[in-house]
Amino acid sequence: MSRLEAAVALYRRENLPKLQDLLGWYAALPTIEDAIRAASHGLDQRQRRHPHQRRLKKAALELACAALLARSSAICAAKSFHSLLEIVAEVAGTIPGLGELYAYDTALRVGARLQLFPAAVYLHAGTRYGAAALGLDAGRDKLALTELPQPFHGLSPHEAEDALCIYKALLADR
Fold it and tell me: What's the start-to-end Cα distance of the chain, in Å?
């Protein structure tokens, strides 16, 4: 087994169940407003802030929550993950301290409630490092799943994004 195959196998065993549980929890929230509130604050099932959002200021998260709730009709009308991400990114772009990782994570969690998932592997923060470690063009906004090495092809795009981020250092050592 190659190092890359081992990294994907480790992801499937150790990290994928956690992501599936988190997104399942978001999908089961009673209302879209509940999903927006939880996602905009970066909360998990235990009502704890996800490590990606732990350094963000509470005031910024509150502003994002209010702005996203005000856009709930547009969010519900989104027909794709990409259009949902554009709405969240537009809001995040108006709030200092919130960037592309916040926008992606928030859109992914709200998207779980709406059953809208990425059709491509979005690059931001750690995923750019993971993609670059694989020799891919990390300057782009997204990659097709088929552009990643074969071991990633059995994952969905959002799972591949998660694996690239989590195992970026391991991928760099390959």
Answer: 13
Distance, in Å, from the CA atom of 59 to the CA atom of 46, rounded to the nearest integer, reads 21
CB 122 within 8 A of CB 134: no
Q: pLDDT of 39-59, one tens digit each?
A: 999 999 999 998 878 889 999
Please give the residue range of the domain that contains residue 159.
3-20+120-172
Give yes or no: residues 72 and 107 share one domain: yes
Q: What is the dihedral of CA 119, 123, 124, 130, to 10 degrees?
A: 130
Sign of CA dihedral 116, 21, 126, 89: positive
Of 114, 130, 149, which closes a domain? Answer: 114
Q: Which residues fall within 8 angstroms of residue 150, CB to CB, at 6 or more apart?
A: none
